[in-house]
Specification:
By secondary structure, the chain is of the alpha+beta class. The chain has 5 helices and 20 strands. The chain folds into 3 domains: about 100 residues, no CATH class; about 120 residues, Jelly Rolls (Sandwich), CATH 2.60.120.230; about 150 residues, Jelly Rolls, CATH 2.60.120.230. The protein is globular. The structure holds heme C.
């Protein structure tokens, strides 16, 4: 066989394997699914990171004994796509951090519950925590910060805390990776690390974020986040009391790149509308924000940001010829999960592309998260105020311009 035909053959074999892969790999019995064969692998891969002792999930879902009493609520949660937390509508991306279940996985779970949640034959697969080499994911960090212990009472409303971090860096730093180690994962719901603006403890640029189940972040090779000399950081905590008093001691680690290793700044762009006015009681208030790129860019990720009244957010690109391209739609935004959507394939957009971010807010009493439906709401930093920010992480496509500027923060809009 000559080389070319061998190549064609193996390409055909690979294509066939790819076509068969989803059904085979999942190997799900959709008629008579059992815990041992079908449900346990799904729970281990998609749920147990949060649903195990000492994590934020309210119950463990590792074994048959643990999961069996929850079968109905599990079925309801996955059928409604409330769990695992992933707010993007299907059909966008693909996103490399997508943890949502496939239709088949949902069908297997709901069928299993409807059939009386059978265990099945044989040994149960055993859940194993992913092994960690050493204390930190990417080796010895260049900088570690430990926050002062924070007491979280057993009961009470969620707590939000902005803690300034004085860095004392005497040179510009290029951040190539971020890891957050939550002190107490039973109460720390999520955490955002911000770059502060110059001379004031105000959030200016998104550096990284953490929630249970979300991995430490290593930025793409050749890119980094700029922390200009002398600039501080802010730790933004959301605590969720869980019935037992707890003390949280969270740590953050950063890894720096040498300036010459960074070809392109990973810019955190804020597409902002801060002039909206949401009337009291309004169930579907709509507002937009836009941004026009003045250079060719390569988009890496999207992070919708609103507060408790935030209901949906959609990102659409209008190319210079007017052609629209839908980038992301989150029709059930949930403030509790500050999620970034990281594109599996970076997306190039030409100069002159206009991004439109359209959001809707629910300030009615029907919104169960609404702190007060009787007041008009405008822009503000408190969780009881609102925000409308469509964050985009991008790098300049042209390397000559790629490290020139940092248009971050609402002030730059
Ligand atoms: C990133 C963390 C995380 C992941 C992953 C996750 N959960 Fe949850 N889950 C939570 C948290 C936190 C709660 C409680 C608060 C809430 O509902 O948001 C919860 C609540 C639930 C509830 C409701 C419990 C009740 O009291 O009624 C069910 C059922 C559930 N999860 C099932 C699942 C299943 C099944 C999966 C995987 C397919 C999953 N979860 C994945 C964090 C997670």
């Amino acid at each position: 066989m000559n080389r070319a035909s061998r190549l064609i053959r193996s390409a055909t074999a690979a294509a066939t394997a790819l076509l068969l892969a989803p059904a085979l790999a999942a190997g799900l019995n959709l008629d008579q699914p059992t815990f041992v064969d079908d449900v346990a692998p799904i729970l281990h891969a998609n749920c147990a990171s949060c649903h195990q002792p000492d994590e934020i999930g309210p119950m463990s879902l590792r074994t048959y004994r643990e999961a069996r009493p929850w079968a109905r609520s599990i079925a309801r949660a996955v059928e409604n796509r409330d769990m695992p937390p992933w707010d993007a509508d299907p059909g966008y991306g693909p996103f490399k951090n997508d943890i949502s279940l496939s239709d088949d996985e949902i069908a297997a779970i709901t069928r299993w519950a409807a059939n009386g949640a059978p265990r099945g034959e044989g040994d149960e697969p055993v859940y194993r925590k992913p092994e960690k080499e050493g204390e930190w994911t990417f080796g010895e960090p260049d900088w570690v910060f430990e926050f002062d212990p924070h007491e979280v009472a057993a009961e009470g409303p969620d707590q939000f805390l902005d803690v300034p971090i004085v860095t004392g860096f005497e040179e510009d730093r290029w951040i190539r990776a971020v890891e957050v180690q939550a002190g107490d994962r039973t109460v720390l719901h999520h955490f955002i690390l911000w770059r502060a603006s110059e001379n004031s403890p105000v959030q200016e640029g998104w550096v990284g974020a953490w929630a249970t189940g979300f991995a430490p972040q290593h930025f793409p090779p050749g890119t980094g986040r700029l922390l200009p000399k002398g600039r501080n950081l802010i730790g933004d905590f959301h605590y969720h009391p869980n019935g037992t008093a707890a003390t949280d001691r969270t740590r953050v680690a950063l890894w720096f790149a040498e300036p010459e290793e960074v070809e392109r700044e990973l810019v955190n762009l804020w597409i902002v509308n801060n002039t909206f006015h949401i009337p009291a009681g309004e169930a579907d208030y709509r507002a937009q924000a836009t941004h026009v790129f003045d250079q060719d860019v390569v988009i890496r990720s999207f992070t919708p940001h609103m507060h408790y009244r935030g209901k949906s957010m959609k990102y659409t690109a209008f190319l210079p010829n007017g052609e629209p391209r839908e980038l992301l739609s989150v029709s059930r935004y949930d403030f509790n999960w500050q999620m970034a959507y990281d594109l599996a394939e970076p997306m190039r957009l030409p100069a002159g592309t206009r991004i439109e971010v359209s959001a809707s807010f629910d300030n009615s009493p029907d919104n169960p998260h609404n702190p007060d439906p009787t007041v008009d709401v405008t822009w503000g930093a408190d969780s009881t105020d609102e925000m409308l920010i469509g964050f985009i992480d991008y790098v300049a496509a042209d390397s000559a311009a790629a490290k020139a500027a940092t248009p971050a923060g609402p002030a730059g809009q």
